[in-house]
């Protein structure tokens, strides 16, 4: 058990994070938010690839760039950073010593990439049988694609997501589109978090650690969710539908007098209320539209009729009228309007943390609310190698002279 850093649900759990970019760091940030002691192992001088993925850069109080990229900042709070050269024999030995003290290791090297360093699961399992070891790759540890590199954009395409994202064929601006956030990486990070927590629970009962093999492509296929089920059950290949829903109507965007709004009708009762707001109460009894199944069958007719009406009032006017009777609806906000939204502000979805270079750093909050062990914002995303001496003293009880030897060997 590690030195207590907080009082979160995972206080006392040590995580050695060998990953970089987004999927692995997203998982380790989640564990860190839950109170785990996460040590981020980075390359000397350069660190995590995303440290260089700017602009934008975090700026100091006088407006000067700090060199900390916004991308890096999004996935690395509550961690401690150490620099270790995995290419050196001494660096590899040091990481093995750290892994012996860890509860969890997260890595996203190519399949088999850590074997040469003696840092693969089978090697570390001999040193620490209770270790939970999570490997994140593009295509997994097995299969014909196992050796291929995998990236979110690539996997969004290969895994089917882009085939159902974008405007329909034959419409203006048609063609496949990726999602505007690296959702496959983020979802893989969340699946990794769930798997690690399950493995820790299993260890409590069995005393044994285990290897978690997590692939971006597997995750992408899994979270096709209802679209995958539509294909497997209905034997029809889902197509791009723009903002429409394959199983629910009306459930999409509509033009207004000053922009667009979203109407998300989930049942027949809500549809009846929508008809009243639109001044077309008779639609609720029209056999073409009375049930969701009939609305799906007559989608084009209903949507065309609605679009002719919605352009006559502003977005705010429609939303006020629909909210008054309980019809789910809302605007399509730009991100600045998201953070200005009263609900988002009330829920505290933006936090500010002290930062050694900038004074403070704005971050998106963790959305999880726990009554007994709430999320703690203990440390801002660390500067490169900021905690090397601290961690080596804490985890391995190394002295200043021991650390100086490692520096002379260029292990750290």
TrEMBL record:
Its EC number is 2.8.3.19. One of its GO terms (molecular function) is transferase activity. Keywords: Transferase. The keyword Ribosomal protein does not apply. It comes from the Bacteria. InterPro entries: CoA-transferase_III_domain, CoA-Trfase_fam_III, CoA-Trfase_III_dom3_sf, CoA-Trfase_III_dom_1_sf. Gene3D superfamilies: Crotonobetainyl-coa:carnitine coa-transferase, domain 1, formyl-coa transferase, domain 3. This is Acetyl-CoA:oxalate CoA-transferase. It comes from Cupriavidus pinatubonensis.
């Amino acid at each position: 058990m590690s030195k207590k850093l907080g009082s979160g649900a995972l206080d006392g759990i040590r995580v050695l994070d060998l990953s970089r970019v987004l999927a692995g760091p997203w998982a380790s940030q989640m564990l860190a938010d839950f109170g785990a002691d996460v040590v981020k192992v980075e390359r000397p001088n350069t660190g995590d690839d995303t440290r260089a993925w700017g602009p934008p850069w975090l700026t100091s109080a006088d407006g000067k760039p700090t060199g900390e990229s916004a991308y890096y900042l999004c996935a690395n709070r509550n961690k401690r950073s150490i620099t270790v050269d995995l290419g050196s024999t001494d660096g590899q030995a040091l990481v093995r010593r750290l892994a012996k003290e860890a509860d969890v290791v997260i890595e996203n090297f190519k399949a088999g990439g850590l074997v040469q360093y003696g840092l693969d699961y089978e090697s570390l399992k001999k040193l620490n049988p209770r270790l939970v070891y999570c490997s994140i790759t593009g295509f997994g540890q097995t299969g014909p694609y196992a050796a291929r590199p995998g990236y979110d954009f690539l996997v969004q395409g290969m895994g089917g997501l882009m085939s159902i994202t974008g405007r329909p064929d034959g419409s203006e601006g048609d063609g496949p589109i990726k999602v505007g956030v690296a959702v496959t990486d983020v979802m893989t990070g969340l699946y990794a978090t769930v798997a690690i927590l399950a493995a820790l629970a299993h260890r409590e009962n069995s005393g044994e650690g285990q290897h978690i093999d997590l692939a971006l492509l597997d995750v992408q296929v899994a979270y096709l969710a209802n679209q995958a089920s539509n294909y497997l059950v209905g034997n029809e290949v889902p197509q791009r539908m723009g903002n429409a829903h394959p199983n629910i109507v009306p459930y999409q965007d509509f033009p207004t007098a000053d922009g667009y709004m979203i109407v998300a009708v989930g049942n027949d009762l809500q549809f009846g209320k929508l008809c009243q707001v639109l001044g077309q109460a008779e639609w609720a009894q029209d056999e073409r539209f009375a049930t969701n199944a009939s609305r799906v069958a007559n989608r084009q007719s209903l949507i065309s009729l609605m679009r002719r009406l919605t352009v006559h009032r502003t977005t705010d006017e429609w939303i006020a009228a629909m909210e008054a009777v309980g019809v789910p609806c809302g605007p399509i906000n730009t991100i600045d309007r998201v953070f200005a939204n009263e609900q988002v502000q009330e829920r505290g979805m933006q936090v500010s943390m002290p930062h050694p270079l900038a004074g403070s750093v704005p971050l998106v909050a963790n959305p999880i609310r726990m009554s007994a062990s709430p999320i703690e914002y203990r440390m801002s995303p660390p500067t490169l190698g900021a905690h090397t001496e601290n961690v080596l003293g804490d985890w391995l009880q190394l002295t200043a002279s021991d650390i100086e030897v490692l520096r002379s060997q260029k292990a750290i």
